[in-house]
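Much of the work behind modern protein science is quiet bookkeeping, done one molecule at a time. The protein below has been through that process, and both of its lines are reproduced in full.


***
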Amino acid sequence: MGEKAGRRRMGPLAGLLVAVVVAAGCMGGGLDQGDPQGEPGQPGPQRSRPAASPGAQDTREDGTTSVTEFKNDFNDAVGLAEQYWTERFRASGKRFQPIRRVVPYSRSGEVSCGGQALPRNNAVYCSAGDFIAYDVNWSVAAFRQIGDAFLYYLLGHEYAHGVQVRLGIRYDFTIQQELQADCMAGAYIGDNVRNKMLALDKGDLDEFRKGLLAVGDDPDQPWFAEGSHGTAEQRTDSFFRGYENSLGACGLG
């Protein structure tokens, strides 16, 4: 996968959906419970670099994805998100302030948002401290299993929550916030495919669409409950509306 001067080629999106299914019940939205807290040694205000998980020096089974590649691809995904939203804000005559930091953690409770400890197997945007936090062990494992496409969806969704805060978007129900973030993640990926900053293999989107049918809240989850993300159909529709039609389909100009 090349740098910005070239094209980034995302891994098979069929694999991406495996990770999204794993993450569907874990990925948080824009938490807003006060000042962020962490254990001693938590990265400072600058963007941190993801750390390797314990024993993660080897490549995955097929020998193609190293921890170094994970770090590079993760940083590329963050950088592309910053570039994308900077350009969109500039086009609207506004200045975009990138998310303050991206924090990797490896233990439950190592990082918290306003006293709420973040569990393992999770990725969230904390609006109080303006940071994204993610379980690096879980992320590396998903990356090894499926490839770099997962990172772009993960960063796209969580970064969207930061953008919502910057635009003052606050819905009455969590599900509205989450479905818009899915749409914005779709726009972020779709727009970058159209401008040739990302490249997809033939058939990836069909595989992505099929995989998204497995994503969504539990059927018994009330749509109005705190933390609801939407049904598989709702999330699929939201993502692809953004992917195909850009931000206008997400309620953004």
About this structure: The first helix runs from residue 13 to 23.
